[in-house]
Design goal:
The protein is an alpha/beta fold. The protein is built from ten helices and 17 strands. The two termini are 13 Å apart. The structure holds NADP nicotinamide-adenine-dinucleotide phosphate and zinc ion. The site of NADP nicotinamide-adenine-dinucleotide phosphate has 30 residues, from helix 1, helix 3 and helix 4.
């Protein structure tokens, strides 16, 4: 346990105070656990590009102070009286949300993350209060049992952390669009989400092509399981691959010409974006009409899907390729994520908080 005996609810972490501010050490109090809560000592937290977007208020909905982080793995410290599935010492994970609408029927529909009432792991508000939710760039978190994932023994806690967002965000559309043996799938952007998508689509039996801006990551992409790699900076790519794919999954965080990518899809195929460019993306009607193509988005994944994804990864040996950092290096890591200078996910080792001294 990394907290002081004087107040076990005190947590240490890193927070940003505003869109143009760096992350700095931050001490705060976690809520007291209720009977259905699990208290978790956080071991690792992935650095998602969404953390960078959110910290800089790129989507205009950030509030501060913000402790980012929604790719959390750790170990159970304590459970409430009503908790049945977890006990002290269990290996667990927390993803992008920690509560959702409890209206009868909603949880059964397995898409609680698309319904009103979703409580994000950070940059949200604790249910029924104005207290901000504070994320995984910290040493502990208190979460209702229903939103805690079990991390299979086969998955190391550090390389599994990015699966809690990057993993499920790409697993969900690959499953929804029934990717399986023989499917021709293109993954656009070889970053945190993209590299896991290549591994998963391959494990599902698809023939995977990576579309990266240049060929600099070609060898990596082939090792991850891609059959071919093309550079999107080259206009010839779009001519050579016209109507070649059943599914194009874009994980790109910047602005690209979606019309060009739509031309890569066969009759009745689908372009799905999980990447969130900062600005609006113009789409022409013609590439959709000619080829009866579909344009779709996909948002994270349900708790049920997230557990299914972790179990799938354990069975198929899928984890993220990671670079472990100390939390003191988080601002450098943010700058490197913005420049796509990471292969392929930064993961914070929260033990590095011990260098900051103890919370009290
Ligand atoms: N839908 C959801 O629920 C969800 C969940 C998590 C994240 N996201 C979003 O998904 C996106 C990717 O996240 P990530 O963590 O994987 O980010 P990342 O590690 O930075 O990867 C993004 C990749 O996109 C490509 N890229 C970046 N800027 C580009 C540009 N201007 N033009 C073309 N390609 C560009 C790069 O690939 P190459 O170097 O190979 O070209 C880069 O590696 C972010 O926008 C994030 O907010 C969405
Ligand atoms: Zn994320």
């Amino acid at each position: 346990m990394k907290t002081t005996a004087s107040n076990p609810r005190m947590a240490r972490g890193y927070a940003t105070a505003g869109a143009d501010q760096p992350l700095r050490p931050f001490t705060f109090e976690r809520r007291s656990p209720n009977d259905e809560d699990v208290v978790i000592d956080i071991a690792y937290c992935g650095v998602c590009h969404s953390d960078v977007h959110a910290a800089h208020n790129a989507w205009g909905m950030s509030h501060y102070p913000m402790v980012p982080g929604h790719e959390i793995t750790g170990v159970v410290r304590e459970v409430g009286k009503a908790v049945a599935r977890f006990k002290k010492g269990d290996r667990v994970g927390i993803g992008c949300f920690i509560d959702s609408c409890t209206t009868q029927g909603h949880r059964d529909r397995d898409h609680e993350h698309y319904l009103p009432g979703l409580v994000l792991t950070y940059n949200g508000f604790e249910p029924g209060s104005k207290a901000p939710t504070l994320g995984g760039y910290s040493d502990s978190i208190v979460v209702k049992e229903g939103y805690v994932l079990s991390v299979p023994e086969a998955l190391p806690l550090d390389a599994a952390a990015p699966l809690l967002c990057a993993g499920v965000t790409v697993y969900s559309p690959l499953r929804k669009w029934q990717v399986g043996p023989g499917a021709k799938v293109a993954i656009v952007g070889l970053g945190g989400l993209g590299h896991v998508a290549v591994k998963m689509a391959r494990a599902m039996g698809a023939e995977v092509t990576v579309l990266s801006r240049t060929l600099k990551k070609r060898d990596d992409a082939l090792k991850l399981g891609a059959k071919a790699v093309f550079a999107t900076e080259s206009p010839a790519t779009f001519a050579d691959l016209a109507s070649a794919f059943d599914l194009v999954l874009s994980t790109v965080s910047g602005d690209v010409d979606w019309n060009a990518y739509l031309g890569l899809i066969r009759l009745d195929g689908t372009f799905i974006t999980v990447g969130v460019p900062d600005g609006p993306v113009p789409v022409s009607a013609f590439p959709l009409i000619v080829g009866r193509r579909r344009l779709a988005g996909s948002y994270m994944g349900s708790i049920k899907e997230t557990q299914e994804m972790l179990d799938f990864c354990a069975r198929h040996g899928v984890t993220a390729d990671i670079e472990i950092i100390a939390i003191q290096d988080i601002n450098t890591a943010f700058a490197r994520v913005a420049k796509s200078d990471v292969r392929y996910r930064f993961v914070i080792d929260l033990a590095s908080l011990d260098k900051e001294g103890r919370a009290s």
